[in-house]
Amino acid sequence: MLDESSSGFVRLPWYTPAMGIMDGKTCIVTGGYGSIGFASAEILLSEGARVTLVGRNQESLGLAAAALDVGPDRLETVAADVSESADVQRYIEKTVSRWGKIDVLFSHAGVSGVIRPITEYPEDVFDNVMAVNVRGSFLACKYVLPHMNDGGSIIITSSIMGVTADPGVSAYATSKHALIGLARVVAKEVAPRGIRVNVLAPGPIDNSFQTRIEEKLTEVVGQDGTEFLNHIIPLGRHGRAEEIARAVLFLASDQSSFTTGAVLMADGGMHV
What we know:
The chain is of the alpha/beta class. It is built from 8 helices and 7 strands, in the order βαβαβαβαβαβαααβ.
């Protein structure tokens, strides 16, 4: 940026050497002990944030917290079912009681369901996928917004299945499409407060969640599910959790200050 000073340059307003770009920010990460949730918490903490890690299992949360290896002044864990209203309110209230108002919500918790034709798809599995994936993010937005600072950021994890479709994944694809609609509605509702709401849509990631999906896919396509997907991803490989975490950091931070209602594809070009 140029000015009339003798040097001809001034620093850009977001240039803050020796400071983390999330310094002083309070963040919630659901699905916190999965690989993407963990990597996202790790990168947010490395940039100075305080993080509440949310997941179903307290033991797994404890292991994740130990691996993150930061003091309790910057990390909280809450065992919760994201589809239950009381649990959602509890993890939000615990965060607020620790650190005050919330700056970032990363609503990442999700389940995949099964791969079956719609005529054979189990109704209870469909209901569970919708409860965790859609209701979980709906409740998170509903209850976090009264406790969120103006100018904050909400990030909701959809998927490549939120913009495409394949046979056999009616519950998962329906839920991931629905999350994009939810995010766009909320983005317009909270724009007057300067709160940004964006969707992160990963493609296949090298983690245990994806491995379970690909085991089911192998049975359906009659060949190795991982190799099958690698052949149709233009970059020729699965993504890594840390690559998705860097996208989370961008959407969480002021670096994405003019981005809202967007779907950030992190899929190696698979949707193209």
